[in-house]
Design goal:
Number of strands: 18
Distance between the termini: 30 Å
Order of helices and strands: EEEHHEEEEEEEHEEEEHEEEHHE
Structural class: alpha+beta
Number of helices: 6
Shape: globular
């Protein structure tokens, strides 16, 4: 896979990966940096993804020639830890479903810069799609029990894997140690006892987070925090005088043909251009290449002016 050199803004021998970044100013919409790590003998690609705050599918997509289970001692792994912030209000929680990534904008503390936190997440399978829309956190629970809905119990029973009516708190609970209930009935943000699936379409519609991520996020989120669930397979934003484009594979249940992808590009570019007066000349060839590759890595599509 082609990795555009201009987005390799930081390559370190011993990178430190953070979930928290200072919020960019009005002329900056890009956080983080693409970097590389060297696999150890005992590593799997899943473990590297977890350590570097990247979802499973995205890590595999940018390292297509690396064996998921045996990367090999010394193998260089590309870590796509650079992100364009989703368009829309920078407040509360923003969940971008095609990206399978969450953004949290905590309230600004006096004397400190505004910040954004970002985490990989799992979303619903196509037949159990996570809904779009604006909602809020209505309830929070530590060490939750799980009462499987009848639809899920029927599904498991049909596979010969019957579920109990109540799953108590503990290591076998699919909700993990924390859950936050959304205002959309039946949907949660929660931990998991199967962290290897984070960053994939594996849930029954709820949002799953890595145990260590929700442990950090849970105490920061007050009841009533706004939550915006969006469908933005294409994002555009500025880093200084340059315009960047980031393309992810679209969700199958929404328009995703060539015409739809062009429409997503236009929405993203219109938003970015409207927020900054610029005579930037767009490179249509680069845009077309990213639409084909869908690498999920921000690439420069204009030098701006």
């Amino acid at each position: 896979m082609r990795i555009v050199a201009s987005v390799l803004t930081l390559v370190m021998s011993a990178p430190v990966f953070s979930a928290t970044y200072d919020l960019p100013s009005e002329h900056f919409d890009v956080i983080g940096s693409v970097t590389t790590v060297r696999a150890r003998y005992e590593d799997t690609l899943l473990e590297i993804a977890r350590r570097t705050n990247i979802g499973q599918d995205h890590m595999q997509r940018v390292n297509p020639d690396v064996d998921r289970w045996l990367p090999g001692d010394g193998t260089i792994i590309t870590v796509p830890s650079q992100h364009i912030l989703p368009r829309g209000p920078r407040t509360g929680l923003v969940l971008n479903l095609p990206e399978m990534r969450m953004y949290y904008y905590p309230p600004k503390k006096p004397g400190q810069p505004a910040q954004v936190q970002t985490y990989p997440m799992s979303i619903g399978r196509m037949d159990w799609a996570t809904p779009l829309g604006t909602t809020k956190i209505v309830d929070k629970t530590r060490n939750p029990t799980w009462i499987p809905p009848e639809s899920i119990r029927r599904e498991h029973a049909a596979k010969g894997d019957p579920l109990p009516r109540v799953v108590p708190a503990g290591p076998n609970n699919p909700l993990g140690q924390y859950k936050m209930r959304l205002g959309i009935p039946g949907y949660l943000i929660h931990g998991t006892n199967k962290p290897q699936g984070v960053g994939m379409r594996v849930s029954h519609g709820c949002i799953r987070m890595l145990p260590e991520d929700i442990e950090k996020l849970f105490p920061q989120i007050p009841t009533g925090t706004p939550v915006n669930i969006v469908n933005q397979p294409v994002k555009a934003g500025w880093y200084g005088g340059k315009l960047y484009l980031e393309v992810h594979p679209p969700l199958e249940e929404y328009p995703n043909d060539r015409g739809a992808m062009v429409e997503y590009v236009m929405l993203a570019l219109d938003d970015a251009m409207s927020r900054r007066a610029s005579s930037a000349a767009l490179d249509n060839q680069l845009i077309d290449e990213e639409l084909s590759q869908q690498s999920g890595i921000p690439v420069v599509i204009s030098s701006g002016s």
